[in-house]
Design brief:
alpha+beta; four-stranded mixed sheet; two-stranded antiparallel ribbon; 5 helices; 6 strands; about 15% strand; Glutathione_peroxidase; peroxidase
């Protein structure tokens, strides 16, 4: 089953087919409104604006599975993303990305591209690793999403071509996007 066969829900409850994004390069992220990585909303917005005319989009899926860092409902989260962070790319309803309630789209994404070895080269990476190991050790196993702001890059044909961890460089992500445009 390809990515275009999945349905996603907007914060207002409307259902949208991933077919909507056919022939676009997509960066699909699980996000959170109160995470140490929220600065990435602005980075993602800049990428969205820079490459929108070239057939690129960012799709944001709020998730509250990591330290209760997105307690708001989908509508509140979308409003906050727009008002506080200047987000103009699509923000969908809250979802689960791990466990029995994993949204089918994210189940598909995380099984299309393997998780990389968890890097522990910086203080931020070490602190994140320690937090996950202490609170969510199962998320370090297999292809689970490890934390908020994990990103999946999808090419124009719907192939999942890359997975980026929250600490990966926005410059590396931009380079990967540019190679697909």
């Amino acid at each position: 089953m390809g990515i275009y066969n999945y349905l996603v829900q907007k914060p207002n409850g409307d259902i949208l087919s991933m077919q909507t994004y056919k022939d676009k390069v997509m960066l699909i992220c699980n996000t959170a409104s109160q995470c140490q990585f929220t600065y990435q909303y602005e980075d993602l917005q800049k990428l969205y604006e820079r490459y929108l005319q070239d057939g690129f989009t960012v799709l944001s899926f709020p998730c509250d599975q990591f330290g209760n860092q997105n307690p708001e409902n989908g509508l509140e989260t979308a409003a906050q993303c727009k008002g506080q962070f200047g987000v103009r790319y699509p923000v969908f309803d809250k979802i689960y990305v791990n466990g029995d309630k994993t949204h089918p789209l994210f189940n598909y994404l995380k099984h299309e591209v393997d998780a990389s070895e968890f890097e522990k080269n910086t203080i931020q990476q070490k602190m994140l690793f320690d937090a996950i190991r202490e609170h969510y050790p199962n998320y370090l196993i297999g292809n689970n999403i490890r934390w908020n702001f994990t990103k999946f890059l999808v090419d124009r044909k719907g192939n999942v071509v890359a997975r980026f961890e929250p600490y990966d460089s926005i410059m590396d992500i931009e380079q990967a996007i540019r190679s697909l445009l």
